[in-house]
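Q: What would this chain look like folded?
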Amino acid sequence: MPALSPAKPQRRPVVPVRKSRAIFLHYLPQTGMDAYLKQVHDATPMQLIEVERQGVDVAFITDLSKRMEIPEQRLFSYLRIPKATAQRKKANNAIVGGQAGQTALGMARLAAMAQDMVKESTHPGAQGFDAVRWLGLWIERPQAALDGQRPADLLDTPTGVDLVARLLGAMQSGAYQ
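A: My prediction, written as structure tokens:
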């Protein structure tokens, strides 16, 4: 009988282990709206994807409505969140996920973009100008470049947010006034 050779150990495929990174952006009311908008502005695409997956803190939405001077319920309606759901999320300090969370993140990105526009402006009136408040007024006005629609009515889709962002960019460059 032939001698049995020891069986070769089975090799397991090497699976790269993804090291965990602190990529989730948190809204902390005590640090303020501007600090969060800066985090969103400076975030990598992977960090933004993680926020889109995890959701946005309802406190951010509440504080954003105050800063934009948009009634809270109207802002929740832009996010397509029913009144009862909005009240429940607020009462529980919950995370707003899914499409509503992505829309809230889109609004944060637009607010950060508006702040950048003001920061880069050489106009004397730019000093002390509240770009987030201005954005709140602007998104509620019909825009000819959007076929007469209000930017707020387009923010519930990624394409709508992109279209509004491009319009803001065109305004910044002077291509649209």
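DSSP finds eight helices and two strands in the chain.
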